[in-house]
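Here is one such protein, fold included:

. . .
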Amino acid sequence: MNCVLLTLFPGMVSSYFDFSILKRAREKSLLEIEICSLREFGIGSHRTTDDVPYGGGPGMVLKPEPIFAALEAIRAQQKGTDIRVIMPSPQGRIFNQAMAHNFAKETKRLVFICGRYEGIDARVCEGVSLEEVSVGDYILTGGELPALLMVDAAARLISGVLGEPKSLEEESFSLGKNADCGMFEYPHYTRPAQFQGMKVPEVLLSGNHQAIAQWRKEKAFLNTQQRRPDLLT
């Protein structure tokens, strides 16, 4: 998976990919990340990237020129390979596991435009073929966190990224062949077998794999039924 994060604050996002699973994915060339500074495409000697909104109102709006110039430069790097532009936005489609799988299989370069302040000049949406994607019904200070969230969710689905591929088959929202699609995961326990009066369920200590599998299936269903019954529909 090849991704570009277009942002005003490169330092805010670059370190996220220097640790743990995502770091190893980059070392294996399973995940390619480029952090592109929008400031480099700013206007004039001050590299201006934002201005006051027409019609008045609070805050600043990201100008269209730097974004168009940045996307043109990114396209020029591709040497014929197409790009797919994603813009985190509260008005977009809600991001989910199915979309993460779609991103993970994408052969085009994924470009995430990270907005800031009051938003992005609407002509970016008008003049660029892009997808608006929301990570929830709330507002953040910028698009960096949503972009990181989407890249993280997709990258771990790439074959070879996780040390144990079977981990993907039984987790919440899993689309794995052995999963009950769309349900939450069952509860997990580890040592000690008893802690502050709370015990690990006996079935998990029994060694009876058939009984354990049945217990996990029932718990996954109950978890989902109690917390998100809408997923069962």
Notes: Residues 42 and 215 are 58 Å apart (CA to CA).
